Amino acid sequence: MKPLGAVPWPPTPIVTERLTLRETRTEDRPALVELLSSETVQAYLGGPQHTREQLEELIPADPNTRPGIFAVEREGEFIGRITVQRREKAWAHHVRDEGDEVEIGCEFLPTAWGAGLASEAVRAVLGWIDATLPGEPVVLTTQVANERSLRLARRLGFVEVERFTAYGAEQWFGHLEGRP
Fold first, then answer.
1. What domain range is 96 assigned to?
2. Which uninterrupted H or E stretch holds 20?
3. Residue 41: inside a domain, yes or no?
4. Would you say residue 72 lies in a domain?
5. Where is the N-acetyltransferase domain (predicted)?
6. How many domains does the chain have?
7. pLDDT digits (tens, 9 = 90+) for 57-96
């Protein structure tokens, strides 16, 4: 198990047909504040954890704070992010006894919804995970009520492991089929 901190970061930008996935930059900060303060985007993630004003103070001028956060850019504009992190043993719900699976998540601005951009971006990051952390189990969690996210997970090959209740809602925990 290679720790994410041991993975070279930032990676070479990943370019797809319509997107560039790269490290977060200073110029992404305003859109990142919008993403994290949006009631719409954060609806299935427990709602915004901070107000726009608080985020303006909390997010550093250079928001590239840790490995595993890919900024998703379309036509030169930040439209969302994909996060890759280790699902620590302290968290409940794992696919292997020792935990520490690779967990993937995504958040996109509503202007990017409905065009297949999340699917394109997550597929690209899954390719990066395959090349960088080969053979590692990949997991994700989403609220059952988040139908868009659930459809995306299934379309990408994630299969349900279990459901549980957290944050006052039913959650769907799955792993990428064909991985350990």
1. 4-136
2. strand 20-22
3. yes
4. yes
5. 19-180
6. 1
7. 888 777 776 788 999 999 999 999 999 998 887 777 888 8
